[in-house]
Amino acid sequence: MSRAPLLGELAVLDDVGPPRRGRAYPAAGITWALLTPAVLLLGGLLAWPVLRTAQASVTTDGRWVGAEHYRAAFSAPGTGAVVGRTLLWALLVPTVVTVLGYLLAAASRRSQEGWLVRFILVVPTALPLVVTGVTFRLLYDPDPQRGLATLLLARLTGRPPEQVPQLLGPDLVTVAVMSAFVWAWVGLAMLVFRAALDAVPTGLVDAVRAFGGTRRDVLWDAQWRPLLLRTVAVVFALVAVGTSRTFDLILVMTPGSVRDEASVLSLRIWQTSGATTTGEGAALGVIWLVAVTAGMLVVALFVRQAWPPPQQPAGTAVGAPPPRRAVRLLAAGAAVAWLLPLGVLAATSLQNPVRAATGSWWSGSPSLDSYEVVLTSAELWRSLGFTIVLATLVTAAVLGVALLAAYPLAWLTGPAAQATGLVLMAAVVVPVQVIAGPLNEVLGLALSSGTARGAALVHIALGVPFAVLVLRNSFADLPAEQVRGARFGGRHWWGTLRRLARHNRTAVVAVAVLEFVQVWNDLVVGLLFSGPDAAPLGLFLAGQTRGFVAGSGTLAAGCVLASILPVLVFVLARRQVVAGLVAGGVR
Amino acid sequence: MQVAVVWAGGELARFREVVADYPTPVQVIGVGNDIDAFLVARQSAGTTPDVAILPRPGLVVEYARRGWLSEVTPADNYTAPAGMADLLTVDRRRYGVWTKAAYKSLFWHFPSMLDEPPRTWAALVALTRQLGARHRAGAGPAPLAIGAADGWVLTDWFENVLADVAGADLYEGLASGQADWRDPPVGYALDRLAELWSVQGAFPGGGRRALLTQFEESIIQVVHHRDAVMVFEADFVDAVVARFRRGSEPPSTFRFPGARVASQPLIVGGDAAVAFAGSTGGVELVRWLSEAAAFRPWLDAGGYLSPNLAVPLSNYRDPLRRQLADELRAAEKVQFDLSDRLPGTFTGTDGVGIWRIMQDFFMDVTDGVTAREAVRRATGQLAEEARTAGGGR
Asked: Any idea which UniProt keywords this protein has (chain B) (predicted)?
């Protein structure tokens, strides 16, 4: 068998017909048994709540009311603005992230200090969004004694601080939240673009150059057409779906007085429903669900399985010209700009609590008092311990359930494979705020509503679709001889599955890391479903933003402590993560 | 035995000391501010706690109507101030007792920055104008600090003024959903606020800045930076003062001024204990909590006010609380925090309900919108919100 990367797309030359599928199937009888856990979880904790939400949007206490809730939701003041803002988020922010991600990937690719730039940019990606929110709220504080941005604006415009545009004020708060989001996501976009650029066959670039092609020709014929077009689609969709996470940022960054000016659909639904089901909230939820799913499907059809398998990056091109000075400056500038917020957070955490609330982080002498306060509080330790246990158990459960389900799903071919792919993709993007009420009802039946067990179940249900998607694709992408070997080597289906999983280490690692970091960084599931037994970290930190300025020292210290583990894990496993992300389609 | 409470930190620790004296072991779980969502979820799971401490009487009534609660009888000597006692009853049955009170009609200031506190509303406005003019000339601190980023600070302002200008009947009617928010006294109250809030130079950094200032920060502005002379809020301000005060001078307080020296509004808030249906132990515990002796750990810690008038004045260690407890006794009738009694989302949270409406109003009057127009908008929004929230959740 010979495999040749041809224009970036993998062609398996010894196979005929629908490629790369149909080799790893288990016996028919066992199939359903393997699928049962995933089906139960997805059916009970995703599909049923979605249906129940749809039902709640057209009924009141079981009575049919038609479009009344929809009308009520839309006539409520501000709904138009909220929908508009949500759309703006879904279109503008992914565009900015995609463009910046590409530029930085290109700029940092061949220069020597590129790894440093990439490292700096990747760190924000792994931070909990709660921490990102805290960081930018510190940076944008309206008091020039604390907010560096306000101070700089006052200096630059020469106006007194009271008259400087307020970044957290009603006019700019959305821009402020967006900037925090871009900061957090560009690193991921850059990693994906870098993987794509590395996968571009260098021979192609040389060929274009040999025929007298200009830089533009190289970009167009050797990069954009074969690969980048699809990468852009992947990144754009990835970020667009990610924008539904703005919820965490808005909750942490906006004081109550400007929350409406920053509000998006997820927040509005939470405000009108909380953890229960109301008709109006359900109506908004259904609209959002339809929009997100439709957008997702469009992208999915467009991108469909076009990514080259990530296990064989072509390596850095030899002899390619170093990037131009302007490009390198861009990379350096970005590194500094991306480092600044991290510096603000670290410096604030190194002030004692009173000083952090009353003075500037840049003028006080550092002290470890804030850390001392945080580290001696039983709450933080309880929260940390709980989060570690929760994230580990959820990750293990998701991996288990997803491996079992991915194995039989990988042998599907043709329309059946595409249909499962789309269903899983749709399940990936269901925003949890929309189905919170019905989910609580289901959890109530399992006696786990408002408990840590309930929160763990929700995490597992939310994590499974993506994990199945990634693992299924990577099983299906396995070379024929490995599958054959596994089938002969393993006596039972589980032996085969174990062997197959071993060949798929990249995907398994990607799923595990992403799931772990996701649970660790979560705010919304904890907010909606966790019980009083222990608050997960995200909730613990978000709860402290209530008195933001007064508690900024200890809050910053808590944020730093909460970020260490996810950053470490993510930085170490970034290659696998990128590979997993692109193989699994889009999250 | 399980008790779910709204408290966290020091308050939670205090309450654990309280129930440590109870004959049977009690597990206390701090749920935080969103206790409503928690209890709703627990109810649907069929695992409600025995007892809960609720931050709003509106919730007590709501749960009682749904049949979630047991009727309770307080201890014999338990006496809540008039105006608080009947908030926890539905159809003449009592479903809760008050366990902790907050006194929400206080201004805080340093005597060295303000020697003669204003005793009427007119005097407060005059003082604010005078200090405001001085502040704008760059010759002194602003007269007022206000944490307008937290909607509840603004609703507390509004409630004090409303209790002063409107009769008890209207106040009660607004709380219970019977009265119309377009009634003239609501407008008068808002007019008054507009008169004060629109004074140029009233707040450090102006109105725009005040809207991004949270409660704690507004106190820091007075007791640490001395950027402002006075700050209005509840008795629990002193916890923040203790953390951030600079210098040795202790702050003093004066009561929220009314139209006349003799008539000063008195707004209180409080937390109530309820027992869930089917828990006999819960009913017993609630009764025990209503005994005067159960408040002892709070008194020992200082900084807390009991809603139970049976707690002897001499038991209060800190002089401020003793004085406030005395005022609670002397008051003919106290008014309970109005926003805490409103139904559904009207009760307010960040960006929602009456919190949002008062913040819009604050933004209008500090941004040059005429008082008349701002009041018209606010009353319209209030009436609309009352209409939609009336159906309950």
From this structure: Sugar transport, Transport
Cα atoms in the Cβ-side hemisphere of radius 13 Å centred on A320: 23
The amino acid occupying position A24 is A
Show residues of chain A in contact with B38, CB under 8 Å.
Answer: 450, 531-532
Beta strand pairing status for B93-94 and B142-145? Answer: unpaired
- Chain A hits for B149, CB-CB cut-off 8 Å, are 255-257
The rounded distance, in Å, linking the Cα atoms of A432 and A50 is 10
Pairwise CB contact (< 8 Å): B148 & A257:
yes
SS3 B256: coil
- Domain residue limits, chain B: 2-103+268-333, 106-255
User: Contact at 8 Å (CB) between B308 and B79?
Assistant: yes
> What is the number of other CB atoms lying within 10 angstroms of the CB of residue A281?
26
- What's the pLDDT at A25? 56
Q: How close does chain B come to A83, measured CA to CA in Å?
A: 16
Average pLDDT over residues A433-439: 87
- Count how many pairs of residues, chain A against chain B, have C-beta atoms within 8 Å: 137
As for the ipTM of the complex, it is 0.90
* Integer Cα distance of A192 and A324 in angstroms: 22
pLDDT digits (tens, 9 = 90+) for A193-210: 888 888 777 777 788 878
Question: What are the two backbone dihedrals, phi and then psi, of residue B255, each rounded to the nearest 5 degrees?
Answer: -80, 150
Domains (range + CATH), chain A: 25-60+77-583 (1.10.3720.10)
Q: List the one residue out of B293, B190, B272, B223 whose CA is nearest residue B5.
A: B272
Tell me what pLDDT residue A321 has.
Answer: 56
**Cβ within 8 Å of residue A190, ≥6 positions away:** A100, A101, A102, A104, A105, A108, A118, A121, A122
Tell me which fold the domain B2-103+268-333 belongs to: D-Maltodextrin-Binding Protein; domain 2 (3.40.190)
| Chain A residues closer than 8 Å to B212 by CB | 142, 166, 168-169, 255, 257-258
Asked if the C-beta of A373 comes within 8 angstroms of chain B's C-beta atoms, the answer is no
Q: What is the pLDDT of residue A583?
A: 60
Round the CA-based radius of gyration of chain B to a whole number and report it: 21
pTM of the model: 0.90
Q: In CATH, which superfamily holds the domain spanning B106-255? A: Periplasmic binding protein-like II (3.40.190.10)
pLDDT tens digit string along B311-323?
999 888 888 999 9
**Separation in Å, CA B62 to CA A401, B58, B59:** 42, 6, 5
> Which of B181, B190, B155 has the alpha carbon at shortest distance from B385?
B181
